[in-house]
Amino acid sequence: MRAAFAILWDSFQLLRARRLFWVALMISMFVALMYASIGFNEKGMSILFGWKQVDSEFLQKGKPEAAAFYTMLFTDIIARFWLAWFAIGLALISTANIFPEFLAEGSIGISVSKPVGRIRLFLLKYLGGLLFVALQVGLFTLIVFLSVGLRLGEWNFTLFWAVPVVTFVFSLVYVVAVWVGVWTKSTLAALLAAGLVWGVSLLAQWTESFFYQTAYLLPESGMKVDFKTGEATTGNADVERSNAMATAHETSKAVTSPLPKTRDCTLYLKRLIRFPERDSLLSGVTFDMLLSGQLPDKKMTGAMRRMEDRHSAWYVFGTSAAFEIVVLGLAGWIFVRRDY
Amino acid sequence: MDGPAVEIEYLRKRYGGFEALAGVSLHVPRGSVFGLLGPNGAGKSTLVKSLLTIVRPSECRGRMLGEPIGHRKTLRRVGYLPEHARFPEYLTGREVIGYSAGLAGVPRSTTRERTARLLERVGMAEWGDKKLGTYSKGMRQRVGLAQALVNEPDIVFLDEPTDGVDPEGRIEIRKMIEGMRAEGRTVFVNSHLLAEVEQVADQVAILAKGRVIETGTVAQLTRRGCRYEVRTVGPVPPGIREGLEREGLEVKGDLITIQADNAVPVQPVIDLLRSAGIAIREIREAKLSLEDIFLQAVQAGKEAT
C-alpha cells in the first residue's frame, strides 16, 4: 500500500511539474467558467455573468427550453468536443513520455530493484498517467455540476459519469502510447502510434456511422438520397432499405469491433447523463439541428434516437476494454520480461 | 544473522549470442566492503543488476542475505545506487529519498526522520527542499547515496559511486562507505577506479570478460608481488653483481631487487654490500598496487583466451 501510494504520488508530482498540465487545466477552467457564466433571466440569456444579454423568447428563466439548452450545451458540445478531443489530445502530449523517461538508464533500476513486483509497478505507473485526465475532468465536472445545480436547481450526479468515461476514453489512446513507449523507449514513436490508432479508430467509427445513417437512418426518417446526383428528398412514406448499404454497415461494424471506440464512448455519455424529461420545444433536437435551424420531425427524432442507442454498452465499452486489456497485457509483458 | 551477504554459486547471463557473465561464482562476507573491479564491459553492472532483479540471469544459483537470489522480499533489505543515476528533476532531494523509502515499504512516519538524518549525513541538509534540476553532479550522487540508505539496508550496492564526483567529494563518499561498514552493513562497490577501491575495500574480485579472474582480500592480492629494493651509491660493481645474479637476484645499475614477502632474505645482501664497502642509499619494501594486480590479471586473462 505504501509503495502504491509512493508511485501514485510520484505520478502526481510529475504532472504538477508539467507546464502543459497547468495550461490544460487553465483552459479547462476557462471553459467551465464560461459555461458557468451562462444564466437565464426574464428577458433571455445572459453570458459572462450578466455582462452580455441575449434576448430570447424561449430561453428564459424558468422555461423548460432554457434548461434543455443549458444541458444540451454540456452533452452535445463540451463533452463531445472539449472533453473528447482537446482535453485528451493535450493529455496525450503531456503523458506520452512518462514510460520512455521511466525506462531510461539510471532511472528504472532504482524502482525495479525494490520489493515491488514488476507488474504492480507497471500498472501503478500506468494508472498514474491516467491521473492527468481524471483530475482535469473531475474538477471540470464539479464546476459544471455546481453550475447546473445553481442555474437549474437540478443536482444531477449523473454528470460525474464524465469522469470515468472520459478517463476511459483517454486510457484507450494512452495504452497504445504506453505499449510503444515501453517497447521502443521513444516518446515520439509512442505519440505517433497513439495518434495513429486514435485516427484509425475514429475513421472506422465514422465509416460505421455513415453506413448506418445511409442504411437505416435515412429510410426510417423518410429521406431518399440519389447517390448519383446527390439529390435528397424528404417526407417519403416508404423508403426501401438498401441491402448493399446494410451489408456495408455490418462489415464496417465488424471491422470496428476490435478497435477502441473513443467516439462511441463519448457519445454514450449522453445516454449516461440523464436529465429529467422536459416538455420542451427542444425535445429531440440536437445541437446540430439547432444550429442548422432544423425543426424536430417525429420520424427523424425517432430515427435519431435509435441511431444514438444502436450500440450496446458491451459493444462500446466491453470491446474497447478488451482492446485495452490486450494492449496493456502486451506492454506489461514487455515491461516484466525486459532486462534494464 | 550468519552466513555470507552474497554467495553466488553460478551466475550466467547471455544477451543473444553475447555472454556477459560466463558462470561467475563469488562470496561476499557480511559487514565487509567488497570491491568488484573490471574494465569497461567486463560485466560488473550486469552482475549487480542480476542480484537486484534488474536483469534476468540466464542461469543463477546462489543466495543473498540468506534467501535465494531474486527473492523479492529480500530487496527490502537492500540499497542501490545505479551507475549514472537519473532522478526526476521535478523532485526535491527530500522527495527522491521519500520515493525510494515508499517503494521499499518504509513507513511514512519513519521516513521523515530518516530523510532528515540522511540529508544531514550526506551534507545536503540545506539543499533537501530544492529541486534536483538545480543540483550539481556531486550533489545528485550524495542524494543517490542517501536514498540507497533510507531503508537501513543490510547490503548496499554502489555502482561507480564516485563517477563524475570531484576529489573532495570522492573522499567524502569513501568516508561514507567506511561509515556504512562501521554500522555493520555490507557494501558492494563496483568501480573501475582501483586506487579508491584499494583504500576502502576489504575484499576484491576482478572481473574480465564475464569471468572472475582474481579474488581475495586486498592484502592477499598485493602481498603476492611483495619485494625489497636495495639501492647503492653508484652502480653495483660487476663482481658483486655476478654473485647476486647467480643467487637469482635481479640487479640493474644501482638497484638490487629481492623477491620476498619478509625481510629475512635481504639481510645477507646487506652484509655482502657492507663487507665490500659499498654504501647503501635506500632499502625499500615494495608491493604491487591493486592496479598492478588488476593489469596483470586482465593481461593474463587476455593471453589465456
Count of domains of chain B: 2
Name of the CATH homologous superfamily of the largest domain in chain B: P-loop containing nucleotide triphosphate hydrolases
- Low-pLDDT segments of chain B: none
Major sheet characteristics of chain A: 3 strands, antiparallel
Poorly predicted spans of chain A: none
Helix content of chain B: 25-40%
Strand order of the largest sheet of chain B: 6-7-8-3-9-10
Helix coverage percent of chain A: 55-70%
Order of helices and strands of chain A, N to C? HHEEEHHHHHHEEHHHHH
What is the oligomeric state here? heterodimer
Please give the radius of gyration of chain A in angstroms: 23 Å
- The total count of helices of chain B amounts to 10
Number of strands of chain B: 14
Structural features, described:
The complex is a heterodimer of chains A (340) and B (305). Chain A has 340 residues and is mostly helical. Chain A has one domain (64-337). Chain A is built from 13 helices and five strands. Chain A has helices at 2-17, 19-36, 64-95, 98-102, 108-112, 118-152, 162-184, 187-220, 243-256, 262-272, 287-292, 298-308, 313-337, and strands at 39-40, 44-47, 52-55, 224-226, 231-233. A three-stranded antiparallel sheet of chain A has the order 1-2-3, with no helix packed on it. In chain A, strands 4-5 form a two-stranded antiparallel ribbon. In chain A, a hairpin with a 3-residue loop joins β1 (39-40) and β2 (44-47). In chain A, α2 (19-36) runs antiparallel to α3 (64-95), α3 (64-95) packs parallel to α7 and α8 runs antiparallel to α12. The longest helix of chain A has 35 residues, at 118-152. Chain B has 305 residues and is α/β, with parallel strands linked by helices. Chain B folds into two domains: 6-218, P-loop containing nucleotide triphosphate hydrolases (Rossmann fold), CATH 3.40.50; 226-286, 2-Layer Sandwich (Alpha-Beta Plaits), CATH 3.30.70. Chain B is 36% helix and 27% strand. Chain B has helices at residues 44-51, 93-103, 108-121, 137-149, 167-182, 194-200, 218-223, 238-246, 266-275, 290-304; strands spanning 6-15, 18-28, 33-37, 59-64, 67-68, 78-81, 155-159, 186-191, 203-208, 211-217, 227-232, 250-252, 255-259, 280-286. In chain B, the strands form three sheets. A six-stranded mixed sheet of chain B has the order 6-7-8-3-9-10, with helices on both faces. A four-stranded antiparallel sheet of chain B has the order 2-1-4-5, with helices on one face. A four-stranded antiparallel sheet of chain B has the order 12-13-11-14. In chain B, α5 links the parallel β7 and β8. In chain B, α2 crosses α3 (108-121). The model of chain B has no long low-confidence stretch (mean pLDDT 90). The chains are: A mainly alpha (340), B alpha/beta (305).
